[in-house]
């Protein structure tokens, strides 16, 4: 596995970018849930 990745640096970049995009997706999904919760609390107070 290490020999394969050391001879193909493009796959290292691909793996890193997928991890970063996955982290952004998870962060945005959690943020969306928090915003929905705050919107429900705000609507119930009106």
What's a quick, concise take on this entry?
The chain is mainly α and 46 residues long.
Mean pLDDT: 93
State the end-to-end distance. 59 Å
- Low-pLDDT stretches are none
Tell me the strand percentage band.
under 5%
Tell me the total number of β-strands: 0
SSE-based structural type: mainly alpha
Please describe the biggest sheet, giving its number of strands, its sense, and whether it closes into a barrel.
Answer: none
Give an account of the 3D structure.
There is one protein chain. This protein has 46 residues and is mainly α. It is 93% helix and 0% strand. The protein contains two helices and no strands. The protein is rod-shaped and about 60 Å long. The model has no long low-confidence stretch (mean pLDDT 93).
Write the layout of secondary structure elements.
Blueprint: H1 2-7, H2 9-45
Defining key terms:
46 residues, rod-shaped
